[in-house]
Amino acid sequence: MKAIRTKRSLYNMEELVFVITPDEEDGGFCAAAVGVPIFTQGDDWLDLCAMVLDATKCYYYDSEPPATVRLMLREQVLKVA
After folding, report:
1. Beta-bridge partner residues of 41
2. Which strands form 15-22's sheet, in the order they lie side by side?
3. Which domain of life is it from (predicted)?
4. Which residues lie closer than 8 Å to 75 by C-beta, 6 or more apart?
5. How far apart are CA 62 and CA 77, in angstroms?
6. Staple partner for 48: which of 13, 15, 42, 57, CB 3.0–4.6 Å?
């Protein structure tokens, strides 16, 4: 028998990962979830953390949210001339 995966089961995960980038235009930080369409921003790190948790709860309002959220800063390598 073949299992059928629904939208709900595809997004039911243990950990949700956000890639964090500095918001160079307005200051603060931007956060984009990997694999699900969740985007948010914060004026500073504590504000960003609160906004990420709020956006995650809002996205999963009708289903089980992930157990944890991981915030990953974008790594950038610069070449020295």
Report:
1. 30
2. 39-42, 29-33, 15-22, 68-73
3. Bacteria
4. none
5. 40
6. 42
13: amino acid identity, one letter: M
For the beta carbon of residue 79, count every other beta carbon within 10 angstroms.
4
What is the token pair recorded at 22? Answer: 């500095």
Whole-model pTM? 0.75
Distance between CA atoms of residues 58 and 44, nearest Å: 21
Tell me how crowded residue 61 is: count the other CB atoms within 10 A of its CB.
7
